[in-house]
Amino acid sequence: MSNDGKVRVRGLSIFRPIIYGNTATLLTTEDRKGGNIPPDHTHKWTVAVRSAASAPDSDIVGGADDLSYFIKRVTFKLHDTYTNATRNIDKPPFEVSETGWGEFEIQIRILFITEAGEKPMVLYHHLKLHPWTVTGEPEIPPPEVALKMGPVHSWQYDEVVFNDPFQNFLNILTAHPPTPLPTVKKRPVPFHLANPGSLEASRGGIPEFTRLMEKEEAARLEDAKKKVAAEQERWRNILIEKEKELEQLRRRVNNS
Which residues form a coiled coil (predicted)? Predict the structure, then answer.
């Protein structure tokens, strides 16, 4: 049997754009009818991992593509107060919907298909339930105002990069090209990119990721890398100077 598919394609990188995050809305009296919702729960929310591109005319953020061709399972680790806090989702949509009253950090573990030969990817998302008002200092608005503002969206763009992929996995990826992101936005920007307290952040609506935002995100990452490199160089020079001072002190001690 041929092992050609198990050979890595050296020097090649291929990526798939994804988003992860949540949507949240206030629970209404209608929502509570006929449901088994704890009385102290104030919001219903959905946390998800999706393709970055949105389907045309969809009211869902992202999700134009089925990611199961390279993702085998997504595990969401919720707050320990939830029953079965670890939720394994083995088929799309890779998401969990719940109700609750508080914000907390959710661990998201992405397991790739066997052909990938890659370790799982772990992400972290802080569940966001509340919008911000635009008057004065940012603050949580009262329920009647929050309802008018619409759903709260908190989404992060990321790229899953596969370096030196196995040939058979590369074949799978190239057979499923991602839906291109639109060139410009037609919807409000996601809340995580909006300035808390700004008018744009309070308008609600359905966010949409674009190529421009992808470039801006890449530019921010590059700028961050340069700042880290500069800071490393600064501390390296400080260390060199301290080592010189230490050597001078040793010489003085030895000559005394």
Answer: 214-252
